[in-house]
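Illustration: Ribulokinase.
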Amino acid sequence: MALDTSGAYVIGVDFGTLSGRAVVVRVSDGAELASAVHDYEHAVMDTTLASSGATLPPEWALQDPNDYREVLRTAVPEAVKAAGIDPATVIGIATDFTASTPLPVLADGTPMCEVEGLRDRPHAYVKLWKHHAGQAQADRINALARERNESWLPRYGGFISSEWEYAKALQLVEEDPEIFERMDHWVEAADWIIWQLCGSYVRNACTAGYKGILQDGAYPSEDFEAALNPAFKGFAARKLVHPIGQLGDKAGGLTAQAAAWTGLPEGIAVAVGNVDAHVTAPAAKAVESGQMLAIMGTSTCHVMNGDTLAEVPGMCGVVDGGIMSGLYGYEAGQSGVGDIFAWYVKNQVPGRYFDDAAAAGKSIHQHLTDLAFAEPVGAHGLVALDWHNGNRSVLVDTMLSGVVIGQTLATRAEQGYRALLEATAFGTRTIVETFNASGVPVTEFVVAGGLLKNPQLMQMYSDVLRLPLSTIASEQGPALGSAIHAATAAGAYASVADAGEAMGRVERGKYEPNAQAADAYDKLFAEYSLVHDYFGRGANDVMKRLKAMRKEALS
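Result:
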């Protein structure tokens, strides 16, 4: 421990898909004193552009960066006030973000959507992580990388996602070259918000490695960029290259302007930016090799440290120091989990279920879960694919879509709901088995995120995976993880690992696999795997043909 932490506090700010949350955390033991949430005014712009009302094409997902500033202006001071602490006792602040969520900016950090005359240009805005409109560009990046045998491609499981920096930037240069040329930086929101706080642009090692194809100190070559599009040549050198900050390091001190926004002392430590999933690992004490952390919410991101470098098919990436210094950080993920359950409830559940849930004093999700798990495994006669928002791992294909097989006129709403819950667990098992087969064994499964509140779901995951399942003992995992990084950046602890040991919290082995249920789930998983490979590995591309028809019909 580098200094006395008694009476000191830090702020962790978690920027999610629809809102930002600030949490006040005590440095000495990680106690969370208070939090506050600010909903983004513009939420996700996926159908229309707020400034003009113009219709956006399919697969777009934009955000307004000023919504992020408003989190600093409102949620941070509200959290400090609710905690009842003296702001002068706050020694650091850190943030985390969804990723890849890049935006084009000028040299001083001004977003292009705030430049006069560009407010109504969709490409001037933040492209949220689930902006998938660059899939055609991602396909070309992957095809060219395979053709040229690029050494960095296996580090990403053999696929570069349309969610990441390069595909989104290539779409930008091809669809709005003026904005591409006028922007000085293609910056992750995770780094832009730190720039807003401390006045310095530092590119964090996590997003640079996982989302920006930075491997062994180099980005893809200019020859590669030019082969994609002559106008793209020099993209990394001109728009991307910037000093890299290591996780847990100090990016700078809080500026006077940001101090006025937040009510915090000017000059306190601002930690290097980070990603919501990766920053959570020390908060859940899931930093040792073999401990796979799943942040389960609207989507799921799986992160894990390993002692050795391995190539895992379909992983989102492996980065030296991407989660913790001295270890290789691995990432995988599922693009839709909670979002799928929410879609099903909103669109597929009859009104009488809502009435019954209200009469029982339950949420509709809990009511459906209770009904669904009253039956034994396999009683619904269904198997589903969890691809309603595409597949992130291990197929890395946003053109895939959801399927439910086995429905009859007797199928009930709760049975379809359970099939979707199971599909997400089977998707996770596919990821885990791929890691195991690649020499990166998963020995413990740790869960953070909102879905851990569902005990039936958690037990099912343990059964499906045949692994002990631990849970983070915090409802604000990413924000707590950010606070841990803030404490490290402020010098309260010598390392993120030390800070996590003191401030993190986890319930080990909260769920253990039930052998009988696990045997039954093995049979369903075998069916899932057959359907997974049939639709996902080229035997039947009907999903892609249907999406093409939809796009043509809407154009």
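Reading the tokens back as a structure: The CA atoms of residues 304 and 412 lie 38 Å apart.
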